Amino acid sequence: MYAERVLSGMRPSGRLHLGHYHGVLKNWVKLQEEYPCMFFVADWHALTTHYDTPEVIEQNVWNMLIDWLAAGVDPAQATLFIQSRVPEHAELHLLLSMMTPLGWLERVPTWKEQQEKIEGRDLSTYGFLGYPLLQSADILIYRADKVPVGEDQVPHVEITREIARRFNHLYGREPGFEDKAKDAVRKLGAKRARLYHELRTRFQQEGDEDALEQAKALLDETQNLSLGDRERLYGYLEGSGKMIFVEPEALLTPAGRMPGLDGQKMSKSYGNTINLREDAESVTRKVRTMQTDPARMRRTDPGEPERCPVWQLHAIYSDESTLGWVQDGCRKAGIGCLECKQPVLEAILKEQEGLHEGAQPYLDDPSLVRSIMADGCERARKLAQDTMRDVREAMGLDYG
Ligand code: SF4
To answer: Which of 68, 112, 127, 325 has the fewest CB neighbours in a 10 Å radius?
Structure first.
């Protein structure tokens, strides 16, 4: 069994805003403490939609990395890298494209939706159709078993699982696999080998999933197996192949929807964002001019927080007592809207202060970010190269 690993990436197609901070980065900071994590800048993915404006990408890459670091993503805990610095992603994408049925890609719901939704760009390109496959290559090349995604990205993880399964089925047969697997079973010792056979038979003949899980647990707790034998024994359980790729699981991220300044989801395309590391003056102006309950025309009119975008920000930033103060004060016209916005504004400014402070060392010395990246890219590349050796060998491309 390969090691646990989380993989997640972000496109450098614009400045990051508080939606990214609350929806993704805070989750990454939590994950990096729980698992070995790899976080990457998906610059090739940015080109699938921004192929005609590549100049925006470079600056966004470095700004985005500084945002990550400022938000607490820690290069000592997680591997941070840039996709295009690990060209093996492209090689795997190409090789996977040979065996991926076109219909699988055409069925990915976001392909059609995005083509219709993103205006002003011609997305009838091969790169755009193939981007879920590039994502699959990103995941499979690190044998990542966990991919944090929102609900809408689950089909991308699903297609990755199907591709992994198809690849393992087509190419996971090494010469003499059966004999090598039997040798590996003997290495388990008589008692464990008997149990392994029993569980394998129960799974293969009766489809008993519990037996499969028990057999996997048995392998997990067996110490003295080489990585190759372990993989063979995993493959032998489910069929007669070696597992080259791991089927990843979607790690559903909490649905936290960061409201924008107008109450819709915060998004660059709605023009309702507050960026990470935005200056205090601009944040203050944006919050002070936010829409409120449209029925509250005058200070003396009672309002209804449920109809007000400011209330949604309170729900993110305020404690119970402030929430109570808002509800009561708004409904009884006891507080004015500017007064009501003040605690939210202060909380956002405080959050921004932390982000500015976190970013400062990297702004003072940009070579720090360059060296974090160089180190992360090297680590990522080593892992990718290991996988590609197996892939080339399995596909008959290892010419010695
Ligand atoms: S008092 Fe607060 S919640 Fe009520 S309308 Fe004004 S800003 Fe919105």
So the answer is: 112
